[in-house]
């Protein structure tokens, strides 16, 4: 077996925390059955203990070990059959074997099976369920390459495995299947429409209003994924942008502007201050480049990052969700 996989697996068995790549974002993983190991994740991230973690498993055969899946097995089978391994997390009633610290004392547990060969090899080698939040300091932009993680946690985590750039770039869709109607708690690459087709029933789509007004719903904070630099959003297609300039400004378009020279001249910005998430506007590419672009601009000397909102369709819904929550900090 690959030495890195052995090292990660060993570290996890000894109660350590390791950084692992997933197809969505990099994760900070620990043995979910080991309270003290999980506590270290919260400490390293600076994450409040009332925000539960996702349990990562090899495949759907592990669901029975950690959740009371029986009552929901028809839905669970359909979802895992269609999308696992992949970027969707399901909420199920938890079994007592999962320590309360993982689920922030909620009676449910969030479970997903990540689609990355390195993460999967570690699950297989350790035979442990792994609790893993995104590997960023609490509230900051999630990391989609190992460089970003090393820059923040390099001195605190011994084992960090490089799995290249994350293919999806946005955290998993979270779906609660325990209610009368299945409900999306966090939008992601797998959309409500796709889920509804597979389940052959209606699905309540994500609504930031409802979630942020319900203090009993864990996690989905109105402000999250924030850059340190002021982030301001503008509507898709708006090109009347100089009104938003404040100090040294950079602009990120969804797609490479067709008349780039004209736009640069008009805005009187240097070429390097005009960026785009995707050459051709493909929303999957936008998602993939979203966090890395924001982080790159955040560490450059800008006062304002102006960012175009994507069309709210397909994965654009999840992209817009992350951008809106990142910009919320600067709206007061
Ligand atoms: O793609 C992903 O899901 C990534 C990778 C690393 O797998 N993980 C991730 O974890 O995004 P984290 O901790 O950054 O976000 C987990 C979200 C939080 O918003 C948390 O509140 C929610 O999942 N969550 C966890 N357990 C829950 C539960 N029992 N009920 C509702 N939401 C829950
Ligand atoms: Mg996170």
Describe the structure in your own words:
The chain has 2 domains: 3-199, DHBP synthase; 230-330, Rossmann fold (3-Layer(aba) Sandwich), CATH 3.40.50.11030. It is 33% helix and 17% strand. It is built from 12 helices and 13 strands. The protein has helices spanning 3-13, 35-45, 63-66, 73-83, 100-103, 117-126, 146-153, 192-199, 208-213, 260-267, 283-298, 316-328; strands at 18-20, 27-31, 54-56, 88-93, 108-112, 130-131, 159-160, 173-176, 183-186, 230-234, 249-255, 274-278, 304-308. A hairpin with a 6-residue loop joins β8 and β9. The chain is globular and about 60 Å long. The site of threonylcarbamoyladenylate (TXA) has 27 residues, from β4 and β5. The site of threonylcarbamoyladenylate has 27 residues, from β4 and β5.
Q: Can you say what the CATH homologous superfamily of the largest domain is? A: DHBP synthase
Overall pLDDT metric: 94
Q: Report the end-to-end length measured between terminal Cα atoms.
A: 52 Å
Unreliable stretches covering 5 or more consecutive residues: none
What is the overall shape?
A: globular
Instruction: Give helix and strand order, one letter per element, not per position.
Output: HEEHEHHEHEHEHEEEHHEEHEHEH
Which cofactors or ions or other ligands sit in this model? threonylcarbamoyladenylate, magnesium ion
Percent of residues in beta strands? Answer: 15-25%
Major β-sheet strand ordering = 7-1-2-6-3-5-4-8-9
Largest sheet: number of strands, sense, barrel closure: 9 strands, mixed
- Considering DSSP H and I runs of 4 or more, what fraction of the residues is helical? 25-40%
How large is the radius of gyration? 20 Å
């Amino acid at each position: 077996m690959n030495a890195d996989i052995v090292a990660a697996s060993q570290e996890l068995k000894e109660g350590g925390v390791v950084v692992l790549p997933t197809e969505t974002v990099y994760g900070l993983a620990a043995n979910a059955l080991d309270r003290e190991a999980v506590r270290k994740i919260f400490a390293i991230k600076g994450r409040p203990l009332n925000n539960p973690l996702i349990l990562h498993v090899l495949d759907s055969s592990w669901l029975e070990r950690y959740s009371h899946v029986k009552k929901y097995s028809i839905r669970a089978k359909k979802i895992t059959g269609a999308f696992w391994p992949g970027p969707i997390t399901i909420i199920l009633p938890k079994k007592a074997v999962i320590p309360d610290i993982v689920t922030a004392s909620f009676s449910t547990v969030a479970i997903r099976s990540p689609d990355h060969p390195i993460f999967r090899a570690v699950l297989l080698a350790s035979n442990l369920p792994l609790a893993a939040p995104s590997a960023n300091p609490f509230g900051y932009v999630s990391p989609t390459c190992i460089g970003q993680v090393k820059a923040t946690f390099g001195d605190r985590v011994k084992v960090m495995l490089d799995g290249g750039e994350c293919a999806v770039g946005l955290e998993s869709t979270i779906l609660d299947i325990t209610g009368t109607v299945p409900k999306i708690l966090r939008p992601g690459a797998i959309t409500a429409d796709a889920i509804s087709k597979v389940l052959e029933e209606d699905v309540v789509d994500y609504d930031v209003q409802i979630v942020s007004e319900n203090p009993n719903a864990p996690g989905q904070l109105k402000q999250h994924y924030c850059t340190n630099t002021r982030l301001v959003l503008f509507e898709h297609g708006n090109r009347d942008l100089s009104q938003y300039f404040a100090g040294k400004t950079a602009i990120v378009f969804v797609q490479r502007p067709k008349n780039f020279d004209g736009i640069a001249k008009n805005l009187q910005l240097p070429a390097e201050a005009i960026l785009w998430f995707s050459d051709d506007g493909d929303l999957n590419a936008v998602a993939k480049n979203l966090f890395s672009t924001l982080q790159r601009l955040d560490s450059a000397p800008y006062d304002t990052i102006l960012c175009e909102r994507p069309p709210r369709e397909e994965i654009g819904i999840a992209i817009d969700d992350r951008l809106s929550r990142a910009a919320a900090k600067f709206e007061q």
